[in-house]
Every structure is written in C-alpha cells, then in structure tokens.
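Treating backbone geometry as a discrete language has practical consequences that deserve illustration. In the encoding step, the backbone of a single protein was reduced to a row of integers, each denoting a local shape. The amino acid sequence and the backbone structure tokens for this protein are reproduced below.
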Amino acid sequence: MGRRRRADGIAAVFCSDLRRSVETAEIAFATGDIPVLLDWRLRECDFGALNGSPGAQLSAGRTQHVDRPYPGGESHRQAVRRVAGLLADLPSRWDGRRVMLIGHLATYRALEHVVHSRPVEDVVAAEFTWCPEGWEYRLG
C-alpha cells in the first residue's frame, strides 16, 4: 500500500487507533513525509460482549444490530455516525486535499452512507467484498 500510495499526492493518513490498523499504517508509511494521524472515530463497531468473536458469528447477526446496540457495545448506526463525525471534520483542515483512511468495516459503511447516500440498513445488510486496491471517495 505504501509503495502504491506514497506518490498519490496524499496529504495525510487518518488511521484507527486499534492495533491492526496502526500496524498497517506503520508498515506502509514508516518512511516518508506523510503524517499518520490516529483517530478513535475510525474504530470498528464496538461489539461489546461479543468483541473478539469469530467474524462469521458477528456477520450472521449484524442486521439485528442496525439500531439495537450489541450488549455492552454500540449499534451499527452509532458506529456509522461516529465515523461520519470524522468525515465531517476533514474539510476544516484538509479541504480539497487528498487523504487516506485506514479503518475497519465501520469506516467503509460510513463512507458508503455519507458519500453515496446508501441507507445504513442497506450497507449493513450487504455482503462485503474486499477490494485489494482500496476504494476512492470524494467528499462534498
């Protein structure tokens, strides 16, 4: 990712502060002048008591938690709203500049909701397909 994206004109990388994302950012952007900024709002949905459960288990019940929080956690709508808060803040300093986000499925869902106006119910219900090249979105 770093080799592919370092020369893309990226002004900054915003990264979830969860270990997996931080390690990805460190590997990809350890050398270079692009600042990597950690932001808790890019975390995955908080599955509460189910944190650490197998992905297949979480995926199977995900539509039941669009608006109903996971026990001790948050709902998918709350997670999308949290990430959307970061997206709303980006123009205050980075307007017109290219940034990269390194996050989780909640980040993807929020981008689909905010940029493409897809209902949260639809993005949660949709099967996720990984894109090795990443995704590109234009805010505003």
Q: What stands out?
A: The domain at 2-125 is CATH 3.40.50.1240 (Rossmann fold).
